[in-house]
Write a structure and sequence with these properties.
The complex is a heterodimer. Chain A is mainly beta. Chain A has helices at 10-21, 192-199, 328-334; strands spanning 27-29, 34-47, 60-76, 79-90, 94-95, 99-111, 115-125, 161-173, 176-186, 206-209, 213-222, 227-234, 236-241, 251-265, 269-284, 290-306, 309-319, 342-353, 358-369, 387-398. Helices cover 35% and strands 19% of the residues of chain B. Chain B has one domain: D-Maltodextrin-Binding Protein, domain 2. The radius of gyration of chain B is 13 Å and the shape is globular. Classes of the chains: A mainly beta, B alpha/beta. At the A-B interface, strand 2, strand 3, strand 4, strand 6 and strand 7 of A face helix 1, helix 3 and strand 4 of B.
Amino acid sequence: MQKKSIRLPFAEAFLLMLLAAAPASALELVDGNLQLHGFFTQGAVYATHNNFYGNTDDHVGLDFREVGLNVSTQPFSRLRLAAQGVSRWAGQVDQGQPWLDFALADVTFFSDETLRAGMRLGRMKNPYGLYTETRDVAFTRPGAFLPQSIYVDRSRKFALSGDGFHLYGDVQVPGGTLNATFALIDLPINDESSKATLVGLNTQGDFEQDRMTPGFRLLYETANGRWRGGFTYSSLSQRYSAVAGERYPNGHILLEPWIVSLQYTDEDWTLTSEYSQRHNAVQFQGLPDNRSTSENWYVQAEYRVVPRWELLLRYDQSIQDIGDADGRKFAAQFQRPAFTRYTRDLTAGVRYDVNANFMLRAEYHHIAGANWLSPLDNPDPGDLQRNWDMFVLLGSFHF
Amino acid sequence: MVVIVNPGVSLTSLSANFARAIFGMRVPQWPSDGELKVFVLPDQHPLHRAFCKSVLDVFPNQLRTAWDRQVFSGTGSAPIEVTTEQEMLERVAGTPGAVGYLEKGQVDAKKVYPLAVR
């Protein structure tokens, strides 16, 4: 396993400096007309087997770090501008490259007591499930990291942010509010981790979208916000252009995920479940077409025992192909471990809010399977183990 | 406990749903097209907790979660936090389009207008 040095390039050092100088709450400049927010997260991961977010196989990996800074302003009441830069380290999947997470103009078309509608232009976070939009902001996440079934990090660029436009509306309906977002975006999907996930390691070719990616999310929230329910759909069509002599020839991959989300919140409890299926249609020249459906879901309870202390319990399950749930057909066909086609992850954790800006987490994962591990961190499938446990410690600061 | 606004705001009452949307930071402007600035006390402040429960019927952690989600996804802003009731009164009085809340007895009718929640 290669171990990278933890050297901070200039941009990150600058972000860290800003964070260190930041006050305890949001920085408001120009009489509250300019807001500055930021976060810094450092994790430590140890696994009994397998590598997740770095070199963690019977080893404590510190290669899990997230830094971000955002600014927003409302020059006119109908126009809001916002941008966020993020640097993230997570093993070989993310190595700290500065990333423009969003940079958008939000224009309000209409706003009265019962209806708000508008449009966002630029680079936006994807309206995908309940958590994608703030997936890299530790204190908004339920747990040290999100359930990897639906919010898989090894191909995270598919559902991170995209360039294009969102049309949205927030309308009062009986019993609550309905929020609808329609997105038409370009996704930056040609990163090493996504490629390694889809066509294997050391590929030279490129992924490109066939067309803009459409997606929408409907979110219903009761008037008092106790219940939230949602439906997400997206359709990503992409071409693979191989270079001469590659293992994979030119190909086409269509991914169509949908998610049903449900959440209940009161003062002490937040109960959340999301269920998702993704239809996959894969065609490579000269190879048989492959159609499959992946199934991903989790149930999760967060319980605020006493002020500042929160407990987490979660069961998260991912099945790559519901026609081959135990992976046996795959194992017979490709001579690869069957357990690389599913994962069941039972998680128990605790969160302690030291103060309003600083949070600590400790988490234990009991895992069977390995379908969401990145090939970049685990290059030899023969080294993978089916049954493994993982311990995560995390500290996060935000303002 | 009452919602208070800057005297420049033309509204005289608002629905509970609209109040929740405003303090949830989902409303970019007043219906009359004017700018809207939301002021709150800290999450743990007894007046903030009481306002959330009795007027908005939400828990403070729900509002905080919604603000964080909006701030860090670029879809909205956080409200402006003041530390004392006196500061709340002065900032709402001195900021065009401002909205906040106070105990009825703390409202100085020469400086801010109370808004009835329907």
